[in-house]
Design a protein that fits this description.
The chain is α+β, with helices and mostly antiparallel strands. The chain is built from three helices and seven strands. 17% of the residues lie in helices and 24% in strands.
Length: 201
């Protein structure tokens, strides 16, 4: 670990203390995990403490851990992951917080701390169904207003629930149940008998 990352880790432990559930280093970047109850307070600290100084939120996304690593997940299902940047200190931090309720995932909005999060939280709401109490305009941003479900959840059907088409008789776009039959395409691979043999080029 570089001296800069070690300094950041020590500063995080100093200012967050018991609120820091874990910190891991991967690919030259620190990831911390905090509880949903501590999330707002931790984020305020990360921005306002001079020796942390994360003045910029550069991304927020939802994550569905229901089949993480192609096997069943034992913990909470939905998480929110935030990427922060400190221009003053030239370091980055990833913050992960799990929603306490899998049936109705909810994580407090940080829009009063970083205004840049507005569309990111709307996207996580739209695609994963994570609700952000405190957000002033939480509505869908990528799917249609009448869309049913949250398409990035791992249990959402690949073909969706409804499809839309233009109906010339009604002279308007209509919605109808999906007519696509699920099928599995297995590619047919044809290789020469000498494929991969260095003696035959």
């Amino acid at each position: 670990m570089s001296a800069k990352l070690e300094t950041l880790r020590q500063n995080l432990q100093t200012h967050l203390g018991d609120r820091l559930r874990s910190d891991t280093l991967a690919l030259g970047e620190l990831t911390i995990e905090v509880a949903a109850d501590d999330y707002l307070e931790v984020m305020q600290t990360l921005r306002d403490q001079h020796d942390l100084g994360f003045e910029e939120l550069i991304d927020l996304c939802g994550v569905d851990y229901s089949t993480f690593g192609n096997q069943p997940w034992a913990g909470k299902r939905f998480a929110v992951v935030v990427h922060l940047l400190s221009i003053a200190h030239n370091w980055r931090l990833r913050v992960r917080v799990f929603a306490d309720d899998d049936e109705f995932p909810s994580v407090a909005s940080v829009i009063d701390i970083w205004k840049s999060v507005e569309w990111f939280e709307r996207e996580a709401f739209d695609l994963y169904g994570v609700v952000f109490p405190g957000h002033p305009d939480l509505r869908r941003i990528l799917t249609d207003y009448g869309f049913i479900g949250h398409p990035f959840r791992k249990d959402f059907p690949i073909s969706g629930h409804v499809e839309m088409r233009y109906d010339p008789e009604q002279a308007r776009v209509i919605y109808q149940p999906v007519t696509i039959e699920p099928r599995e395409n297995t590619p047919r691979i044809v290789r020469e008998d000498t494929y991969g043999d260095p003696a035959h080029g």
